[in-house]
Structure formats: structure tokens, C-alpha cells
Amino acid sequence: MIILGIETSCDETAAAIIRATTKTKPVTVLSNIISTSLEFHAQTGGIIPEVAAREQLKFIIPVIDQAINEAQLGSSIQDLRPGIDAIAVTYGPGLIGSLLVGVETAKSLSYAWNKPLIPVNHLYGHLYANWIETPDYRLPTTAQTENSTVVPLFPAIGLIISGGHTDLVLMKDHGHIEWLGGTRDDAAGEAFDKIGRMLGLPYPSGHLMEQKAKHGDPKRFTFPRPMIGTNDFDFSFSGLKAAASREITRLQGHSELVSESPKGNSGSPSGTTRLDDQTINDICAGIQEAIIRVVVKKTIRAAEKHQVKSILLGGGVAANQTLTDRIAFEIGNLKLDIALSVPTKHLCTDNAAMIATAGFYNYKEVSWKDLTPNPELHFD
Ligand code: KG4
Ligand code: ZN
After folding, report:
1. Which of 18, 32, 316, 329 might form a disulfide with 356, Cβ 3.0–4.6 angstroms?
2. Ligand 1 contacts CB of residue 193 (under 6 A)
3. Which ligand is nearest to the CA of 34?
4. What is the pLDDT of residues 188-209, one digit of tens each?
């Protein structure tokens, strides 16, 4: 089966074509096109919804066209019946203007081509990036076989960790997802981005903060590990952001810690005093350590409580190698019989291949007349 996926929930305009055979095999990506308005948002240090939607309107047709061309299906967006079997589209959660662009385009194509339309929850999409060839799949040390093309086994704990979400879910089977807990305020990626901005780093800052943390000392500054001891699966990162803000303001008052020639970063708020490089590295290491400690602790506890066979990561922050390595370490340390699956890095962040894949494994067709975006969509 060939599926066209469309994703426009935030600042990306993405289209992808996948080939799927059976539910016991991962899918193959034939094309995966992403156009982003990130450079506009880097100038303002955050996403401006109207700018994102306007850019998506410009790019949605060229991006779908390119996805069909690159997949070499022998047809084009102009053909009445391109060589696809279904269209999967993100209908929430996300920004309403952005979602409308993808959903209305998918509806139009479904009508014009007479192809089935599959609505996809963006959060499911992040988890289903683990069903695309070939994730970083680490078998438990107790496993008897080496098999890099297996699909994750149920039950599984899913950790969706991105700029907009931090959720822990229990996946009992395809389409049977139970929400266990999530952030009560900021998402983990949002904490990285906002603290990065205080440090004068460009938006989004998560990836750069991970690089800087490699040269930093996580013990120089000890930041709070919010809710690490609570007996639930919830998170809270706004207190961490406040603690970082207080510490950065205090350090900026020490002239010996301030860089002689502040570098003009596009993402830095005007008037920010830039700290010296080593202090920035140490703060990045301390913040990353605080976030990872909490996330790893709760993910492992959820996995033990529900006696799962796999842990699946998804979302932009899942691209953080230190996070993956720490979860893998804990699994080994506790001798848990659990596999860990992390999507290929470029499939951790928003893309349409994961939407097409989620559509295949949760195939539920709707009429184009009945589909409207739901910006507040969560887990059922
Ligand atoms: O999934 P995504 O593309 O968009 C949302 O649905 O939010 O995730 C983007 C988020 C940003 O907050 C970015 O800073 C973060 O993922 N991110 C990282 C890393 N790479 C991206 N955070 C920490 N470490 C990384 N290596
Ligand atoms: Zn996302």
C-alpha cells in the first residue's frame, strides 16, 4: 500500500510517500519533503502562528508535488489518479491556521483523486516514527536474536518529548493508547528553547544546547529536578525555567563571567549580556542533566509498573543522544527485559513520513466532508 502523508501542525510544511506491506514489518520511505519557516521564527525567537500558516499556504502544493515526483510513482499531483492508495493528514493538535492548510489540502486531493482520507493525531505520528525503517533499536541484553528490522513489541511505553509536548503513554496495541501523564506547564523542548534564548542562543536551541553540554560540567550549577519524586507520571518544567532565569541574571552581574565581545545572535533578546563560553556550556550541561534525570526516572518507572516489552521515544527532544544513552543505561543497569526504540534523528522532529506511517497502522477512513482540524486534540 502506498500512502501520502501531509503534516502542517506547527511551522513545517511536510509531505511524504511511504510503502507499507504488513503490520509486522516497518514501512519504507519513498520520499520525505520538509519545508520550514524556521528562519523567520529564529529572528523572533519563537513561532508566530500567522507567519507559519502564510508560509504553509505558499509551500503546500510544491512540497506535495516534490514528494510525489521523488517517490517515482510515475504520476504527478496534476494526474487524476496518482499511484497512491490513501492520504493521511495531521488534524491536531497544533496551530489552527497551520492545521487548516494541511487538512483542507488533503480533503481537496481526496475528493479530486477519489482516494481514502485518514485523519492522524500528530502525537501518534511521533510514536509511529518507530515503525519506519530503521530506528535505533536496542534489544535487551537478555534477547536471544539479533534482528534490526523487527517492529516494536507491545505493550510499550511511549515517551513523546518535543517543543510542544511531554507525555508518557501506555501502548497496548495499535490504536490502544492510554495516557499516563504529561507536563503540567512547559514541554521539555520548550524549556530548552526558552533557557537557550536567555543564554542568547538561536531558536530552537535544544540541539545546540546538547552540543554545548558536551563541553560543560553538569555539576557546576545544580538546577532543580521538578517532580522527580512524585508518585505519578506528570512533569513540570516552568520552575526549572525560573531557576535558570534567576541564575543567569545573577551570573550576568559578575563582570568576570561576561564575554568581552558579546556575539550578536539572531535569537538573543536585545540587550542580553552574553556570558562567557564555558559558563554557557556549564549551564547547558546542568539544564540538560536536570531535564534528563526527571524524564528517565519517570519513563523507567512507567515501564517497570506496566511490565512492558519496549520503550519508544518520539518528538524533537528524542534526537538528544544523551537522553537515549541514559535510558539504555538504566535498562541495562536494572537488567530489565525491555527493548528501546528511537527514530532516526531526522524522523524525531516533525515530518510527514511518521504521519503516513501512523495512518497505515491505524487505518480509519473518513469522508472529506466530515474532517475538521482539532487544535486541542490529545489522546483518546
Ligand atoms: O517534534 P518537534 O520538531 O516539534 C514539536 O512538535 O514541538 O520538536 C522540536 C523541539 C524543539 O524544542 C527543539 O529545541 C527540540 O525539539 N530538540 C532538542 C534536540 N533536537 C531538537 N532538544 C534537546 N536535544 C536535542 N538534540
Ligand atoms: Zn511534533
Report:
1. 18
2. yes
3. 1
4. 999 999 999 999 999 899 999 9
- Could you report the per-residue pLDDT of 349-367, keeping only the tens digit for each? 999 999 999 999 999 999 9
317 lines ligand 1 (CB under 6 A): yes
The distance between the two most distant Cα atoms of the chain, rounded to a whole number of Å, is 67
Residue indicated by cell numbers 509551500: 59
Domains and CATH numbers, the chain: 2-133+347-370 (3.30.420.40), 136-342 (3.30.420.40)
Least confident of 102-106, 137-141, 371-375: 137-141
Q: What residues contact residue 333 under an 8 Å CB cut-off, 6+ apart?
A: none
Using the structure block, give the residue that is written with the C-alpha cell 518529548: 161
Give the three cell numbers for residue 113. 483523486
> In the prediction, which pLDDT does 44 show?
63
Q: Please choose from 349, 355, 377 the residue to mutate so as to test ligand 1's pocket, defined by most ligand atoms within 8 A of CB.
A: 349
Distance CA 66, CA 266 (A): 31
3-state class (DSSP) for residue 203: coil
Instruction: Kindly state the cell numbers that stand for 12.
Output: 513545517
Give the three-state DSSP class for 212: helix
Question: Residues 247-286, buried b or exposed e (16+ Cβ, 10 A)?
Answer: bbeebbeeeeeeeeeeeebebbeeebbbbeeebbbbbbbb
Instruction: Report d(CA 363, CA 374) in Å as an integer.
Output: 19
Residue 275, C-alpha cell as written in the block: 556570558
Decide: pTM greater than 0.90.
yes
- Which positions ≥6 away from 325 have C-beta within 8 Å? none
